[in-house]
Amino acid sequence: MASRRRLLAWLAALPAAWLAARAAAREGRPLTAFAATSLEDALRAQYGDRPRLRDAALRIEAPQSADNAAQVPLRIDARSRPVLALTLFAEHNPVPLLGRWRFGEGVEAWLALRIKLAASGRVCAVAELADGALLYAETRVEVGTGACG
Amino acid sequence: MSPDPVRIEARFLDGRTEVRLLIRHPMHTGRERDPDSGAPIPALYIDTLIVERIAADGRTHELLQADFGPGIARNPFHHFAFGGGAPGETVRVRWRDTGGNEASGETVITA
Fold first, then answer.
1. CATH no. of B6-29+43-108
2. pLDDT digits over A96-121, tens only?
3. Which of residues 39-68 of A touch B (CB under 8 A)?
4. What is the CATH code for A30-143?
């Protein structure tokens, strides 16, 4: 009987453990994408072959030419689309993945921040929507002397 | 490194709250050199940032949870907004860096 009770307790605990593991996998730090050294590898590490739609709803506002490569202002705006998470990439930084931001409930679908750019090139954003779709946008930023990214 | 203060401003207007935060942190990428000695400066950057709202009923709501790489600018700045909030509620920021340092700061939402 004791072993049966243990088995039942184990079975009862299983869904909770499975959910926790799944949540951990979903919410963990994107280590593989941070380890990538090219933009393409970083995008593939994070999103595999999932289609990324270029959509005018997602915009990156950045200076065409940045005075200070160590402090480049960006504003990412998904125009009220239901964004769950946002990732940003800089094409020629030694670590192209700049970061990943998960948006809590009620947070508006935009974010302004400052980044470093190692060289002139593309800055890219992927917005992960609540329905599973991925929106993609990129813009080119020129810098004089690059900062280490 | 002693934990540095976090500057946060949270302002409520027309049913939404705008948050600006500034964290004092060198965000060393690991590729810089000391300008005087030429010695390499080891990597030390914030890798985890969490921003939460503590509502009037005491419940905590996560607003942003971010994983940073070394490409976020020195003294990280963020500006964002969320629907709701109310004057008197609290916005709290916590961060951790690659050296295991942690710090937090909070502010009360103003009208």
1. 2.60.40.10
2. 999 999 999 999 999 999 999 999 99
3. none
4. 2.60.40.2470
